[in-house]
Design a protein that fits this description.
DNA-binding transcription factor activity; three-stranded antiparallel β-sheet; Jelly Rolls; single chain; Lambda_DNA-bd_dom_sf; DNA binding; DNA-binding
């Protein structure tokens, strides 16, 4: 990996926004200590936790990991053209179990639509802190199975099953099986 420092990048963005750790924690709805632990690289955040924190800075995972990327307004994309929004999040971890991979099609902000190819390794979990954001999202399970929890409802979805919900409802995705799960999803407006 290219040595991307998640903690240093978060610290630079927070400082650039003129926020203290405590102010960012309040804006993000996370404990103050969590910001400190991430910035000092004593804790690797889950995708859900990092996204929640970045919400307090009003930036996406894509902007966090690739701030200077200019998009060419393409129409068609091959597998190598998809943007990996999560590879730098796991760059320090040696074990691949429990990883989540989000590959994005094109420039989500330009189209106000985020289309993702998602892979969940066995044990992968978006986190105990449920995701909540202003959007609508849906997806189709391509292979494997994934437990989707929305509010008080939960179901294990298998290949061919799908979901659609208002993202302001607390939600979580977990792979409880021993095989990889693959999901194609869309979210508008973009969240990650």
């Amino acid at each position: 990996m290219d040595g991307f420092d998640v903690g240093e990048r978060l610290r630079a963005l927070r400082s650039g926004a003129g926020l203290s750790q405590r102010q960012l924690a309040e804006a993000s709805g996370v404990p103050h200590g969590q910001i400190s632990m991430i910035e000092t690289n004593r804790s690797n955040p889950s995708v859900a936790s990092l996204r929640k924190i970045l919400g307090g800075l009003n930036i996406t995972l894509s902007e966090f990991f690739e701030p200077d990327t200019d998009f060419v307004q393409e129409v068609f994309f091959g597998p190598d053209d998809l943007r990996n929004l999560t590879q730098r999040l796991y760059s320090r971890a040696a074990d691949a179990s429990g990883r989540i991979t989000f590959l994005q099609v094109g420039d989500a902000r330009a189209h106000n639509l985020q289309i993702l190819y998602e892979r969940y390794e066995p044990g992968a979990d978006t986190g105990e802190t449920m995701l909540e954001h202003h959007a609508s999202e849906g997806g189709i399970v391509i292979s494997g199975e994934i437990e989707v929890t929305v509010g008080e409802r939960s179901r294990v979805l298998k290949a061919g099953d799908s979901y659609l919900f208002a993202s302001n409802l607390p939600h979580r995705f977990r792979n409880l099986s021993d095989a990889e799960a693959v999901v194609m999803s869309a979210c508008t407006p973009p969240y990650l």
